[in-house]
Design brief:
Helices cover 36% and strands 21% of the residues. It has helices at 17-39, 42-58, 60-64, 69-84, 98-108, 112-123, 128-135, 139-157, 164-169, 183-213, 224-228, 262-268, 337-352, 419-436, 539-554, 556-559, 621-635; strands at residues 273-279, 303-311, 326-333, 359-370, 373-381, 387-396, 399-408, 446-453, 482-483, 487-488, 509-517, 529-536, 563-573, 576-586, 592-602, 605-612. Residues 317-326 have a biased composition (Low complexity).
Amino acid sequence: MSLTLPRWTSTASARSPEGFESFYKDVRGRLLLQTYALTGDLHASQRAVRDALVVAWHHWRKVTRLDEPEDYVRPLAWARAQRRSSARWWARREDVDAEARATLDALGKLSGTQRKVLLLTHLTSLPVDRMAREVGVTRATAERELQTASAQFALHRGVPSAAIRTVLEALAPDAGQVRWPRPSILMRAGSARRRAHTTIGVVVAVAAVALSGSLVTDAAGVRPELASKGILDGSASPTPTRAPAPPPPPPDPLTPEALLALDQVVGAYPGQWTEGTTSTNTEGDGLVFTCQAHRYADTKGIGALVRTFTAAAPAASAPKATGPATVGQSAEASADVTAAEKTYRTTVDWYAGCESPRVQLLATRRVVGVGDEATLMVLRAWNDPATTQVVGVARTGGLTTTVVDTRPAPKEPGAEPPDAVLESSAELLATAVTGLCTLPDHGECAGAPQLEEASPPPVGRHPELLVEADLPPVPGVTQPWVGTRASKVQDNPAATRCDKTTFTEPGVTGARTRTFVIPDAAELPPEFGLAETTGALPRKQAQRFVDDIRSSLDGCTDEVFGTDVERLAQEETGPRDLSVWRLTVEVSEKRSVRYLMAVVREGNAVAQLSFVPADDVSIGPAAFIALAHRAQERLGQLTSP
């Protein structure tokens, strides 16, 4: 049976609860297919359809007077699905079959307007004029976008244009995949929503009556009609009251005027800038910035805005630009401060543990004096051309904002931007918070920002371990690092033939290990990669642990035939230790293997790190020493025994 063309029609009996039940059962499948095709997020789509139908029951008398009640519900469901959907949700689900995944991928390559006109054309029976009106464009624009969308979808999906409707209808989830609530549950929710709205109206009306009634008295200055009914003296029987309805969600406080303005960006980074679009970020996949994992950090938020700015390209004869090429700001409003705190942490996690390929976290700064909490992070995207991102995240009350500036990367690998650049970024973040402080939901505002060095924010279930975003690029290799899942230690893959260190001895707690490889680089040998093992010990035992490894490495050249050991770095400062060696091992008369190993201690937590290069492919000693320092920073997250 087709899920697209049948339409529910209103009758007199349709205004009854039975009529709503019939409407609910008839339209929910079509609306779910449409919202699923629009967003690719089945869970968000089902919730959106459910909530839209709750609103329909709230206004059921008005809805049933419409010629096409379904046309009232559909825009509500579509808007809610886009607001709640996670970007490329289907790409992470194993239960999405290949055909559906291909269809969703093809839809994802269309613009938001193209996707809407395509779905309205093939999954509804709307005429072109009404379809254009629902999308918010002219008929000519709708026809042009439909023609482009049909051609692009057919090309990306590999089907003829005549098969588009069939392919889209095949997305319909199986009945077994979806569990719908009973109609009575939706009607109760809609009735509660109606009572909540009525309560607000009654409060306003009572206030008006009280004001006007205080001016109406008889000659004696009393109100005999009210007194005769026992209302003034409280003798009348109390009217039964219902339990209070849940309060409606707070209104969206965000306004475009609260975001960064063009002159503020020019003030921070002098030059010719163009202000781009300002939107609620409901179009496309919603991924505006590199490392952004989802459309919104707060999927239950009450508002969101995004604005972008672009610098004019320099003339060919001009020196290479060093300032930012783009600046962007996002702002999210949460329902309360607790939700905003979680939104802030989620946003920081996106960048501290960036999952975008070949993006490295270079530095982290704590920003003091800006909002309730603020962090600045520097990232390097190693694609061609390489770019540097300075990302500022701040929270003030129930509002969270992110400011990202992207600029060409310096030639020196791993080089951080100068302090002046970070200070400019911090000042622009402070300006963004000042703008949000014009809104009612703000908390602490911004003064002169002060930057303090900070360890990278904790990421994941085992924040003491390195993540992909910590690893430097491998010269000549364009494929990304991939880390294995952290596991309990049985064998220590970071040990060398000199120390043979284990993390299973008595006293070691919380031991975990993880390895990193580049699986898509077919030219690299299988042994190429990085391994890290961590654990915690009582303080004195942790110091002995490090001393024993150092002693083993110092004597290895004499004691292990065919092994040469060179110490590259050693640092000892109170509770912190760091040592790095280069080992060369003869595996035959004509071939030697050279690799790098480090041991670090942070208080009572210890880690061993080893890197095995290929003959002519390596990250180099300097990058490995920097990585050992990052491992030491992460190690501070290991819980003490």
